[in-house]
Design brief:
Distance between the termini: 13 Å
Order of helices and strands: EHEEHEEEHEEEHEEHEEEEHEEEE
Radius of gyration: 21 Å
Largest sheet: 10 strands, mixed
Strand content: 35-45%
Shape: elongated
Number of helices: 6
Helix content: 10-25%
C-alpha cells in the first residue's frame, strides 16, 4: 500500500492514534503524517503510506488553512478552553472582528503556547510546566496570509497560515489586541498541502481512497530524465530547471527529488522508488 490517505481526524484522539489505527486496519507498519493535530482539533490529516513515507521531509512544512472559534473573557494555561483557567475578566466588545484580525496578517514572531512540544534546553515547554518551573518564552517565525470572518457572533474565522503557526496563539493575541483575555474554543483544519476537507474521509471508513504520491507534488517543477539508470544509481545530472528542488519523473511516476548543486548540476536529495 503506497500513496496518500486524507483522513478527517475525529475529536478526542491524537494524530498518532490515527496512525496506530491505520497500521492495525491495513496490517502495514509504514505510515506517517505531514502535520500533527492536537487531540481536541479535527480535520485534514494527510497520511503517507508505504513508499510515500520517503517523501515526508518535503511535505511537512506546507501552508495550512483552519477554521477556529475564539472565546473572550478568560486566560488559560494552554491558550484554549481545555486548559486550567488562570484569569477571568469582563469582556470588551469588539466592533469589527475582521478589522482586528487583519492587523495580524504578515510575517511575525509568534509567542509559542506554554504547553507546546517546542524544545528549549533539551526539554519540551510542557515539561517545564508540569514540573512547576517557569516556562521560557519561545517565539516562532510564522506568516499569516489571510483571515475571513465566518460568524461575527460566534467569533468564528478562517485563517490561512504557514506551517508551525499556532491558532490558539492567534486567538490569545487577537483578544489582547482588543483589550480582552481570550482563548481558542474550537479548531478544524480544512486544508493542508493542497488536500482539502472535501477530500478527507472518516477514520472508520471501511476502505479509504488511496491517492498517488504524485498528487502531493502537483505544484513542483517536474523533469523527465533519461537514462533513468542515472537516477536509480543516484548520479548527478545536468538539467535546465528553474527551481532548486525538482521532482524527477518517469512514465508519470515520481522517482526522486533532486537539488541544485551549481548552475545546471543537480544531485540526488532523496530517492522515492
Amino acid at each position: 500500500m503506497d500513496g496518500i490517505l486524507v483522513i478527517d481526524k475525529p475529536y478526542g484522539i491524537t494524530s498518532h492514534d490515527v496512525i496506530d489505527q491505520l497500521r492495525k486496519k491495513y496490517k502495514q507498519k509504514k505510515f506517517g503524517h505531514t502535520g500533527t493535530l492536537d487531540p481536541n482539533a479535527t480535520g485534514v490529516l494527510v497520511v503517507l503510506c508505504g513508499r510515500a513515507c520517503k517523501a515526508l521531509q518535503f511535505l511537512e512544512n506546507q501552508d495550512k488553512t483552519y477554521v477556529a472559534q475564539m472565546k473572550l473573557g478568560l486566560q488559560t494555561t494552554t491558550d484554549d478552553i481545555w486548559g486550567e483557567i488562570e484569569q477571568e475578566q469582563e469582556v470588551v466588545l469588539i466592533d469589527d472582528l475582521q478589522d482586528l484580525l487583519d492587523t495580524m496578517i504578515g510575517p511575525q514572531k509568534q509567542l509559542v503556547p506554554r504547553t507546546s512540544a517546542k524544545k528549549i534546553g533539551g526539554k519540551k515547554l510542557y515539561e517545564y510546566q508540569r514540573e512547576g518551573k517557569e516556562v521560557p518564552k519561545v517565539y516562532a517565525d510564522v506568516t499569516i496570509y489571510d483571515f475571513k470572518v465566518l460568524d461575527e457572533q460566534k467569533m468564528e474565522f478562517e485563517v490561512q497560515c504557514s506551517s508551525g503557526t499556532y491558532v490558539r496563539s492567534i486567538c490569545r493575541d487577537a483578544a489582547l489586541k482588543s483589550g480582552n483575555l481570550g482563548v481558542m474554543s474550537s479548531l478544524k483544519r480544512i486544508k493542508a498541502g493542497g488536500f482539502t476537507i472535501e477530500q478527507a474521509e472518516p477514520l472508520d471508513k471501511k476502505e479509504h481512497t488511496l491517492i498517488p504520491l504524485e498528487k502531493a507534488f502537483d505544484n513542483w517543477e517536474k523533469v523527465e530524465y533519461e537514462p533513468i539508470a542515472d537516477i536509480l544509481n543516484g548520479k548527478r545530472i545536468q538539467c535546465n530547471a528553474k527551481n532548486n528542488l525538482i521532482a524527477i519523473m518517469h512514465e508519470g511516476k515520481i522517482l526522486a527529488i533532486y537539488e541544485r548543486e551549481k548552475e545546471k548540476t543537480y544531485r540526488s536529495k532523496r530517492g522515492l522508488w
